[in-house]
Amino acid sequence: MTETDHYSLARAQKYHAHHRASLRTRLTDRREQDCLTRALIDAGSPESMLDLPCGTGRFWPAAARAGVCNLIAADGSPGMLEVAAANRLNATIPRQLLETSAFAINLPDKCVDVAACLRFYHHLAMAEDRSGLLRELIRVSRQHLIISLWVDGNYAGNRRMRKPAKPPVPGYGPRICRHRGEVAAEFVDAGCRIIRHYDVWPGLYMWRFYLLEVAA
Ligand SMILES: C[S@@+](CC[C@H](N)C(=O)[O-])C[C@H]1O[C@@H](n2cnc3c(N)ncnc32)[C@H](O)[C@@H]1O
Fold this sequence. Notes:
By secondary structure, the chain is α/β, with parallel strands linked by helices. It is 35% helix and 21% strand.
């Protein structure tokens, strides 16, 4: 698969500012942080976490609030990692900033309690990319995955599903809203048990977090 860095330093700075730009984006950011905190607490308050892709480190305060004290932050974009470095909370959040592909994570097997993959899965139009990503996340995590993406079954998602689909592109492409049942089946096929899901704006918008347990 072709991997391209989609975020220059300037675009990474813009991405970081975007989540603080308006009341709408600030509220969504806040609710996403709450979903992550709840998922981590439901996962038994793990100590170590992989945040991949970490982007600019938006989720680190929520991870710290939930008790994570050893965080590896990884992303494929040097620009994102440069902005993220300025958002470091302390020496262990993150302990390591790693430039790596999500499809070939440069980390050993079972090295973290939980691997979080937020706002990435719904950029993958190809089933083989999604299964490759899940394989890698399962490989590095000892117990849980937390994944956020767009699903249908809500006002915005149902509207979007009625529009003609764009031609799928391999790798990281435009965001896609998927059928909830299809997404759940993919997680189970990959060998995960769905523990819970958390809707960011229940009934209204597409963002959903899943807490998954990795089979032993
Ligand atoms: C929409 S951002 C999400 C970042 C962060 N999780 C958040 O929610 O703020 C998507 C991220 O995926 C990263 N990315 C894209 N393709 C990647 C790949 N193949 N491997 C690792 N990271 C990748 C981008 O650099 C970007 O930081």
